[in-house]
Amino acid sequence: MDVREVANHNSQESCWLILFDKVYDVTEFVSQHPGGPALILKYAGADATKEYSNVHSPAVVEEHLPLAKCLGEVDAATKQYLLVSQQRSPSVLPSETSRVPPLSLCVRLEDFEPVAKAVVTPQSYVYISSAADTLQSHRDNIAQWSKITFIPRVLRDVSRIDTSSSIFGQRCSLPFFIAATGMAGLTHPEGESPLAIGAALSGIHYSPSTYTSVPHEIIATQHREAKQQHSDSCLIWQLYVNKSRDKTRELIRKAKDLGFKGLFITVDTPVVGKRDEDKRLRAQEQLELGIVPEPVTYRGGEKIVPGSDNGAMCRSLNWEDVKYIREAWQGPIALKGIQSAEDAKLAMDAGIEVIYLSNHGGRQLHSAPSALATLLRIQAKYPEVLERCEIILDGGVTRGGDIVKALCLGAKAVGVGRPLLYAMGAYGLDGVMKAIDILRQEVEVTMTLLGATRLEELTPSLVNVRNLAREIDGLEDSGVSSRL
Length: 484
Ligand code: HEM
Ligand code: HEM
Ligand SMILES: Cc1cc2nc3c(=O)[nH]c(=O)nc-3n(C[C@H](O)[C@H](O)[C@H](O)COP(=O)(O)O)c2cc1C
Known about the structure:
By secondary structure, the protein is of the alpha/beta class. The protein folds into two domains: about 5-80, Flavocytochrome B2, Chain A, domain 1, CATH 3.10.120; about 125-484, TIM Barrel, CATH 3.20.20.70. The chain has 21 helices and 16 strands. The protein has helices at about 5-10, 25-30, 35-40, 50-55, 60-65, 110-120, 120-130, 135-145, 195-200, 215-225, 245-255, 275-290, 320-330, 340-350, 370-380, 385-390, 400-410, 420-450, 465-470, 475-480, 480-484; strands spanning about 15-20, 20-25, 70-75, 150, 165, 170, 175-180, 235-240, 260-265, 300, 300-305, 335-340, 355, 390-395, 415, 465. The strands form five sheets. Strands 7-15-14-13-12-9-8 form a seven-stranded parallel β-sheet. Strands 1-2-3 form a three-stranded antiparallel β-sheet. Strand 8, helix 11 (about 245-255) and strand 9 form a beta-alpha-beta unit. Helix 14 packs across helix 15 (about 370-380). The protein is globular and about 80 Å long. It starts with a helix and ends with a helix. The structure holds protoporphyrin IX containing FE (2 copies) and flavin mononucleotide (FMN).
């Protein structure tokens, strides 16, 4: 197909795109694009491969557009007329890199965020930093860690500290892992690669999202190559369960073939939460492009603007489905996003090996409980869950001390999301390595000063949870704080 013909289809009425030398008619898809119509319309009639590749792996277009929307190959002889959009929006602004202070000035995880904010595009920063509604859950996630204080023991020989732990029986050198964060290409031009390589070099586990910017095949190869012999790091697949069982099985098969060692099944995302800053940004982008959206999406009991629901996240997911997933995976699984003691108990009864307490970084349900609060509720109501299942958790962790607190309360390992994204956005692989090292040092110093030489010695007797328990309904009466 002649690229000059493609260039004619450059509007909302008729919108064609070139991706990987193929022409796609995305006129109908534009209004359903989960990233908003503006992003696609910017490239209408042009080649969007470069910008698309910053965000999506090549498979996304095939998975989400019907075959008939591929209009054919670009005629190579006409490529000289190719319109590469003028409005490129790379995820990293080169002119901003001069503002980056030396990495040595980053001494704790919070130091990476302002640097990343200056480096990545405003859109990317909003995507990473946003959370549901007023950000309350995200803020609580962070704030609650400091409501727990330590009760250290002294005069114990702490000349040697062992920080190694395991998830799914897979050893890791440190008791934390890199949590799943979708589309890392928005944060760094190399997408998930610095996270995968950083994890491999540091001996910690990494859980790439179902929705990566770099294909999982490449992530797996880079991880394997970076992994030195002594490194314990493994990859764990974060699974968004697809509405189609066949598609879910396909993802699971891929995870197996690529050597992923476990599955984190995300169960807190039947829909994406309401993130106000994202909505505001989308609205601004649309205005700039002259797109006038419908003022309301709902009238007379009918949705007049249909949401896009291509089944990539399964709304009907329920406890029964866990069975077919387990059958397909044939290995240990974790449910990611458990937020109540009752569901933790159900998970235990269903034979789930690993329970992953999380409120998705406060990005899903507004006013959701922190993973820490859920852990305390489990301690109070169903302490047997801690005996029979591995508990891991994430949300708001910014320092090694937070990790040690979680371990004292019975967690096996802790996930870190945004702080590592900021470190990567600001400094790439060097930033990821430095951030992991900062956490490692903090974990070691905390354990040493607590008088604990191995993770098994981190017990509830080393923490005071009374302040936090007071805030959590029912916990004061249950006596959990005096029992712990
Ligand atoms: C026409 C081909 C495209 C398809 C089929 C497509 C599909 C999707 C899908 C399914 C998502 C949800 C998350 C995911 O699955 O990764 C998404 C999100 C996103 N897409 Fe695309 N996309 C296309 C083109 C583009 C282009 C050209 C850009 C321009 C840079 C873009 C930028 C984004 C961004 C920034 C998100 C972020 C997610 C969000 O903000 O919700 N996409 N897209
Ligand atoms: C009308 C439909 C949809 C809307 C309005 C919507 C909106 C959003 C918003 C606002 C976000 C958060 C921030 C951002 O990425 O910009 C998001 C994230 C995301 N969306 Fe969508 N989305 C829709 C449909 C979908 C669909 C169908 C998919 C699956 C292919 C999808 C996949 C994702 C993923 C993977 C993320 C990132 C996950 C995370 O941040 O935890 N979205 N979407
Ligand atoms: C930008 C971003 C993208 C995320 N994408 C996913 C995802 O694709 N799948 C998922 O299960 N969780 C996702 N999460 C949630 C994280 O796995 C994790 O639960 C959360 O980030 C932990 O909180 P923290 O950011 O405060 O460390 C995402 C979080 C962020 C910040």
